[in-house]
Amino acid sequence: MPLVHLSDREHREYSQNQPELPLWQSLVWKTYQASLGRKTRLYGLKNASGTVEAAALVIIDTTALGLATWDIPRGPTGNREYFAELLSGIIDEAKKDRCLATYCSPLEEISNNSQFSILNFQFSHRHEHPEATLLLDLTKSDEELLKEMKEKGRYNIRLAERHGVKVEASSDIHTFYELLKRTGHRDQFGIKPKSHYEKFLQLPRSFLLLAFDADTQKTPLAGLIGVVWGATGIYYYGASDERFKAKMAPYLLQWHAIKLCRSKGAKRYDFLGVAPTDDASHPWAGVTRFKKQFGGEVVNYPQEQEIRLMPITKRFIDWKRKILG
User: Fold this and answer.
1) For the chain, how many structural domains are there in total?
2) Are residues 166 and 19 located together in one domain of the fold?
3) What is the per-residue pLDDT across 255-288, written as a single tens digit (0 to 9) for each?
4) Which segments of 231-310 does DSSP mark as H helices, in order?
5) Which residues, 6 or more positions from 282, have their beta carbon under 8 angstroms from its beta carbon?
6) Which of 75, 84, 126, 287 suits a disulfide with 116, CB 3.0-4.6 Å?
C-alpha cells in the first residue's frame, strides 16, 4: 500500500470516520506546532479505493547543521494492522531528510512483522509523552468523586477553602509564567519561553485557572493550564509558589479544573502522566503522589520507541547536550 502525503482536507475527512483522535494527532495540534516554528507532515496509507487506512502526524524539530528529529506523538491512528507498514514508510522518508532519530509514542502496541520490521529501535529515555496516565471518570457526581479521592486529597481541598483560596478563570499568562519560573527552579526542570504557553491558550477550549489568596490582595498562589479535547479534559501545565505551600492551593485548583472540564462536556479527566510504577526515583514520582490523591484509574501505554537513523551522530549530539547542560 503506497505511502502518501495527506492534505488537511484529506486528514479532516479521515478523522470524521475515526473514533476520537488523540489531540496530538489532530489538525489542531498540527497548527499549534507550526505556530511554534516546527515543520509538520501528514502521512497516510490509502487502499485501492482511495480510503485512508492509517495516518500519522509527524512533528519535525530541526537541530544544528540542518539535522532533525521526527516525532509521531500518540500515533499512528486508524487500522492498527497497517501501523508497522505506515511507520516503516515514514522511516524511509526520514532517512532522506537528514533525520537523526524518529520517536513514536503510540497508544497501542505496534506489532512488527517480517515484511515491515523496524530496525535499530530502542526504548526512548525521554519523558515527552508518558508511559502511564491517570483518568478520572467525570460522569460521576461531585459527591462520588470526593468520596473516591484519597482522604488527604479531600482534606486539602477543604483546607484550601478554609485558608481563603479563590480560583478564577484568567488570561493573565504573565502571572502564570512567573509562577512557572518559581516551580521550575524549585523542582529543577527547564521551562519553555512564555510564547509557548500563550500559543497553547489559543487552542480551542483551552483554559487558564489561577488560585489567589483573597486575604492578601489577591496574591497568586498557583496556576493551571488545560484543554478540553472531545470528551476528555486534559491537565497540561501546573505551577505553584512554594512560599504558600501550607494553603494547599494546587488541590483546590485541580478540583476547579475537574469541574470546569465536566461543564464543558468532558466525560473523563486526564492528569497527563504519572510514573508507571511506584519507583521513587522516577522523574514523575513526586507529581504522581499529588495526582493520585484525586482517585482515578491508571492507564498504561507502550513505552516510547526511538529509531536511530544516524546513531553515531545522535550519540555525539546527546553527549554534547549533556556536557553543556
Assistant:
1) 2
2) no
3) 999 999 999 999 999 999 999 877 778 888 889 9
4) 249-263, 285-291
5) 275, 276, 288
6) 84
The grid coordinates listed for 250 are 494546587
Range of the domain at 190: 132-300
Q: Pairing state of beta strands 268-270 and 232-240?
A: parallel
DSSP state of 39: E
Residue whose cell numbers read 511554534: 36
Q: Which helix (DSSP H) or strand (DSSP E) does residue 144 occupy? A: helix 142-148
User: Rounded to 5 degrees, what are φ and ψ at 85?
Assistant: -65, -45
In tens, the pLDDT along 106-155 reads 998 887 654 555 556 778 878 788 899 999 999 999 999 999 999 999 99
In which residue are the cell numbers 460522569 written? 139
- The Cα–Cα gap between 302 and 27 comes to 24
What's the number of CA atoms in the CB half-sphere (13 Å) around residue 260? 21
| Chain segment 44-54, per-residue pLDDT in tens | 999 999 999 99
